[in-house]
Amino acid sequence: xxxxxxxxxxxxxxxxxxxxxxxxxxxxxxxxxxxxxxxxxxxxxxxxxxxxxxxxxxxxxxxxxxxxxxxxxxxxxxxxxxxxxxxxxxxxxxxxxxxxxxxxxxxxxxxxxxxxxxxxxxxxxxxxxxxxxxxxxxxxxxxxxxxxxxxxxxxxxxxxxxxxxxxxxxxxxxxxxxxxxxxxxxxxxxxxxxxxxxxxxxxxxxxxxxxxxxxxxxxxxxxxxxxxxxxxxxxxxxxxxxxxxxxxxxxxxxxxxxxxxxxxxxxxxxxxxxxxxxxxxxxxxxxxxxxxxxxxxxxxxxxxxxxxxxxxxxxxxxxxxxxxxxxxxxxxxxx
Amino acid sequence: xxxxxxxxxxxxxxxxxxxxxxxxxxxxxxxxxxxxxxxxxxxxxxxxxxxxxxxxxxxxxxxxxxxxxxxxxxxxxxxxxxxxxxxxxxxxxxxxxxxxxxxxxxxxxxxxxxxxxxxxxxxxxxxxxxxxxxxxxxxxxxxxxxxxxxxxxxxxxxxxxxxxxxxxxxxxxxxxxxxxxxxxxxxxxxxxxxxxxxxxxxxxxxxxxxxxxxxxxxxxxxxxxxxxxxxxxxxxxxxxxxxxxxxxxxxxxxxxxxxxxxxxxxxxxxxxxxxxxxxxxxxxxxxxxxxxxxxxxxxxxxxxxxxxxxxxxxxxxxxxxxxxxxxxxxxxxxxxxxxxxxxxxxxxxxxxxxxxxxxxxxxxxxxxxxxxxxxxxxxxxxxxxxxxxxxxxxxxxxxxxxxxxxxxxxxxxxxxxxxxxxxxxxxxxxxxxx
Amino acid sequence: xxxxxxxxxxxxxxxxxxxxxxxxxxxxxxxxxxxxxxxxxxxxxxxxxxxxxxxxxxxxxxxxxxxxxxxxxxxxxxxxxxxxxxxxxxxxxxxxxxxxxxxxxxxxxxxxxxxxxxxxxxxxxxxxxxxxxxxxxxxxxxxxxxxxxxxxxxxxxxxxxxxxxxxxxxxxxxxxxxxxxxxxxxxxxxxxxxxxxxxxxxxxxxxxxxxxxxxxxxxxxxxxxxxxxxxxxxxxxxxxxxxxxxxxxxxxxxxxxxxxxxxxxxxxxxxxxxxxxxxxxxxxxxxxxxxxxxx
Lengths: 335, 434, 295
Known about the structure:
The complex is a heterotrimer. By secondary structure, chain A is mainly alpha-helical. Chain A has helices spanning 3-32, 40-55, 78-98, 104-124, 126-129, 150-176, 179-189, 191-196, 201-227, 239-250, 255-275, 282-303, 317-322, 326-329; strands at residues 135-136, 229-230. A two-stranded antiparallel ribbon of chain A has the order 1-2. By secondary structure, chain B is α/β, with parallel strands linked by helices. Chain B has a seven-stranded mixed beta sheet with strand order 7-6-8-9-10-14-15, with helices on both faces. Chain B has a five-stranded parallel beta sheet with strand order 2-1-3-4-5, with helices on both faces. Chain B is built from 15 helices and 15 strands. Chain C is mostly helical. In chain C, a hairpin with a 2-residue loop joins β1 (129-132) and β2 (135-138). A two-stranded antiparallel sheet of chain C has the order 1-2. Chain C contains eleven helices and two strands, in the order ααααββααααααα.
C-alpha cells in the first residue's frame, strides 16, 4: 500500500474516532438527557485550542507570527487532559448561566447566541488564539516519537485515537446503562417524576453538560493535534447541526447506535452525492451534502425517529401489568 | 449584527468516500511514476475552496489552471502527455482541507502539481504536500511562509506583509497626506493590516483613522461616521465584498467616500460586484487605486493568458470576469512554470522536476527569456536555458521559494485595468523600514 | 455628546430593521411555540423575489410589497407542508427545532446552488440625506424606519382590537382553553405563520437594502441577532421584540462608537445574557417556563 493511501486511511480512522467521541458527548446531553446544546461545537473548539496552547510552547518561539495565551510545551498526555478539563470547566460556567434558571426553549436560543459570541471573540481578540488566522504548527504527539518513520508515527496516532474512543465507549456504557443513566433518561422523559424521587433534574443536566463538554473537548484536542491547525472557520455554529444528525440517525440514547450513526451518516451522504447525476461541480456537491444532511434528518424524524439502532428500553413486566398506561408503552417521538 | 458566514461543511463528512476511494486508491499508486509509464494524462489539482464563505476562490484558481492546461496541450503537452485540471474542494478550512488533501494524494496516480490552498488552510495542508513530495503553488499571503523550509511550497505573489507596505508606500507615492486605514478582521485582511498601518506611520503620512471591522455586520454607521469625521484624503482598505459594500455605502451616506487604496482583492469580480452595487460602478472606478503586482496587461504572456481564458468557456463559466484577477493570473503562471520545469527536468516526477522550478524562472545571462509555454518548450528542446517571464511579470524565487512581485498602481479605465505608475522598491522599503 | 447622539440615531435605524423581523419571529412563536430557525431562509427567499422584480425594473418599494406577500405564502406553505405534519406526528418542541434547522439548511443551500456563491444588490438610490441634530439619515433609512413603525404598531393594534388578534393572544396564553372557547385554532395558526412570513419578507428586503449586498445565506446569517432581540424582549411579546431590537441596535452602535467596534456584538449579546440572568423570562414575557407546541 502506498504511503498516500496509508495516510488517507489513517485520516479516515482518526476522523471516525474523533466524531464518534464527539457524538457520544452530544448523545449524553441531547439523546439521553434531552438537553439541547446548540453551542456544542464551541466545546470541541475549546479543547482544540487548549491542546494547542499546552503543546505549542511560547508564542515567541515559533517565529512570532502567531499570538496566543499560555504557550507552554507539556508532554503527552497532559495537553489532552488539560483540554478535557477546560472543556468541562467552560461547560460548567455556561451551564450555570443557562441551565439553572432559563426555560428550556430559551436555553436552546441562548446556546446559539453563545456559540456566535465565542466565534466573534476568538476572531477579534488576536492575543487569545491568533484571531481568525487561528493556530498552526500544533505538534502531533506521535511525531515526537523518535526512531520511527512518519508513517509509523501516524499509525501510532491512529492507535491513540482508537484507544481514546474505546475508553470513552466503556465510560458511555457504564454511564448510560446504569441507575444513573435511568435518572438521566428520567430527566428527558418526565422531569417531575425525577424530582419526586428526590433527584435534582437541574443537577443531572449540569452533570451531562460538563461530561459532554469534556468529551467534545477531547475530540477537538485529538483533531487539532492530527491536522496541526485550528481556526474559527472550523467551528462556525452550523457545524453543531451535523452532530445532531449523527445522533438522530444513529439512535438517540443508544451508545452503539450513535457510534454507527457518526461513522455511517458520513459514508451514506457522500456516497449518495457521488452517485447522483449532478456532475462534478464542487460547489454544487458541497451544497448537496448539506441538503442531503437536512433531508436525512427530516426523513429519520418522520420514518424512524428512534434511529438505526434504537435505545434499548428496559421494561419491567410486573410494573407494567399493574399500570398498563399507554404513555409508558408508546415510543416517544422527538425528544 | 453578526454575519454568520455560510455554513462550512462538516469536517467529518469526508469520511464518506471511504470504501469507494479506498478501492480506487488501492488500485492506483501514489503519484510520481516518472515519465517511463504509458503516456497517460497528467493532472494538476485546483485545491481550493469551492464552497463555504470563500467559495469564489476555487473558480478563481480554476480560471488560471484551465487556460494553462489548454496552452500546454496546444503546444503538444508535457513530454508527450496531455494535461488536465481537476477541481478539489478543500472547503477553506483546515479540518476539511486535510482529509481532502490526503484523499487527493491517495486516489490520484497522475497528479503532478497543485495550485491553491488559501490563507485559511495553507498552514495545515502544506506539510502534507511536503510529505508527499508534491509541489504546491499557493496564493496564501501568510507570514508563516515568508521563511518556510517546505521545499515543495512555492509562492509567486508577495506575502500580505509586503502588500501592506506597498499600499502604505502607494499612499505617499500618490501624494496623499492624510489617510485612514480600514481592514476586516478576517485572515486575509489581517495579514496586510499591521504593515500597512506601521508603514503609513513610518513614512510620515498622517494616519487620521485606523479601523478594524468585525466582518459581516448589518451596520458600520458609527465606524463610518468617525472615519468621515477624520476627513482622510484616501482610505487604505482590504475587507471582504459584503463588509466593504456595507461600510462604504454607509460612509457615502454619512459623508463621502474618499479615494481608495486597495489590493488585488479589489480586482476580484465578487468585490467589484458588491461595491458597484453599494456606491456605483463609475464612482468606484473613479475612487479606486489598486496596488497590485506589476503585470502589464500588454505583456506577451498576459495576452496568451487572456486568449486562452476566453477560449475556456467550457470549463470556466463567464471566463472574462477573471481576466484582471491577479490570483487567476498567478495560478496560470504556476501551472506553466511547473510544466516548463518538467520539460527542463525531462521528468514529470514531482520530486525530480521540483528542483527545476527555480532554474526555469531565474534570470541569468545567456538564458532565453520566454513568455509562453510553447516558446519555453521549444527553447528547452534546443538545449537552451530559459527564464519564464509570466503574466504576473518576472519571477525570481528566493531560497524560501517566495518570488515576490513588483508593485504597481492600477486604475480601471474604459473597461480595462491600466497601470498608472510603479511603486518603487525604494518606496516600499521606506514603508517597511528595511 | 454629538458622537453619542449620532450613535443612538444609527442604533434606531438598525433597530427598525431588526424589529420588523423580530416581531414576525416572536409573534409566530407566541402562537405556535415552534422555534422557527427557517425564518432567516424565508427572509432570503423573499429578498430574492424582490431582487428578481427589482432587476426587471420594478421599484424597490413595490418589490418589497410583493416580497412581503410571497414571504407570507412561503411561510404558510412551510407550515402546512412540513411543520404541521411533523407536529401531528408527535414531535415536541425540541424535535421541531431540529426540523426547522433542517428546513433552513435545505433552503439556504438549495438557493445557493441555484444562484451561486456571489453577491446581489438592489437598484435603489439611498436618496437625499437629512440632518437631524447630530446625525444624518437618508431618505431610504427614513422610509424603513417609517415602515417599521407602521408595521409594529399595526401588529400591536391588531392583536389588541381585532377578532383574529384576540384569538392569537388567546392561543398564546392557553391553547386548549382557546379551542374549548370555539376559536378555530388551525386557522389562527395559519394566520400567524402568514403574518410572520410577511414580516420576514419586509424585514429581509429592509435588511438587504441596508447592508447593500446580500447572498443566498444572508438571512440565516443575521437570524441570530433577530433571535437575540426577540429573546431579550421576552419571546412571544411583540412589544418586547421592538424593545429588544432597540437595545441591541443602540448598544451595538454606541459600543462601536466608544469601544472596540470589533466587539460590539459581544456587548449586545452580553446585555442579553445579563438581562436573562436577572430576569430569566426576558423583559416582557410573563412565562417562566416553556410551553408545549400548540397543536
